[in-house]
Design goal:
single chain, 248 residues, alpha/beta, 9 helices, 46% helix, binds adenosine-5'-triphosphate, binds magnesium ion
Length: 248
């Protein structure tokens, strides 16, 4: 596994802006292109941590009620510019951060985030925003204790998505960017650009890279091996069984 060195205590030391101070909670994040298996893996991790009796909170990108309606309206009518698109997502994130993520970390929770600031760093830059501007917007956010990056070729991700539903979504295929009239070709170009952005963050942002072509159990086992170090001492002997939800 690449890109993993030195991350273990990073979250406690480096945070910007309104840091959560001496919070004892742990922030675990998944990132990767659409269809790379993030939700599948985070759900399994969530089940495992809950089965150990730990306090867990799950949060996902673009899910705050505060901006849901306007984002959806803007997307439908193609009213959004790269800047307004970016700022709406930042508002969504800030709402969830201040309402849930930060207080629950203070309260010693495991906070599991399905996409975090790195999604904005990748997507907004591909849509034309300046990287330093995007990073500044999110500078109030804590650096996660672990960021798992599910690395998968866009072609494989697209096949997986199309096995589950008949069509790609407009924004998932980057159709707003006029990359190609063909949605499959547009998806390939758009998601390849996103992969490029993520790849550039591996070292800088201390990502743990997971080979997302591996089977579900193997990936989950790798995740649990890493998350184990965050468990309270009484779980020192817990085995991270990929399918299990017990403490055997
Ligand atoms: N390791 C794997 N091998 C094969 N198929 C997988 C694997 N992991 C997940 N899948 C399947 O791929 C599809 C996409 O997975 P999932 O929804 O977890 O991706 P995601 O990264 O959360 O996507 P999105 O960003 O769109 O939310 C699902 O149908 C899932 O069952
Ligand atoms: Mg998902």
């Amino acid at each position: 596994m690449q890109g993993w060195s030195g991350w273990a205590d990073r979250g406690m030391k480096r945070s910007a802006g309104n840091s959560v101070g001496r919070a004892r909670g742990r922030l675990i994040v998944v990132e990767g292109i659409d269809g790379s298996g993030k939700s599948t893996q985070l759900h399994l991790l969530d089940k495992w941590l809950r089965s150990l009796g730990l306090n867990v909170f799950f949060t996902e990108w673009n899910s705050s009620d505060v901006v849901k309606e306007i984002t959806s309206k803007g997307k439908k009518k193609a009213l959004l510019t790269p800047t307004t698109f970016s700022l709406l997502h930042a508002t969504d994130f800030a709402d969830r951060y201040e309402r849930n993520i930060s207080p629950l970390l203070e309260a010693d929770y495991f906070v599991l985030a399905d996409r975090y600031i790195y999604t904005a760093y990748a997507r907004d830059v591909v849509r034309g925003c300046t990287p330093s501007w995007v990073r500044k917007i999110y500078s109030f956010a804590k650096v996660p204790d672990a960021t798992f990056y599910f690395r998968l070729p866009p072609e494989v991700a697209m096949d997986r998505i199309l096995e589950g539903r008949p069509k790609l979504k407009y924004y998932e295929a980057g159709m707003d960017l006029n990359l190609s009239n063909d949605e499959y070709e547009s998806y390939r170009i758009f998601q390849s650009k996103i992969v490029e952005q993520y790849d550039g963050m591996i070292k800088r942002d201390g990502f743990a890279v997971i080979d997302a072509t591996l089977d579900i159990e193997e990936q989950q086992s790798q995740m649990r091996q890493h998350v184990r170090r965050f468990l309270p001492a009484r779980f020192a002997t817990v085995m991270p069984e990929p399918n299990g939800d017990s403490t055997k």
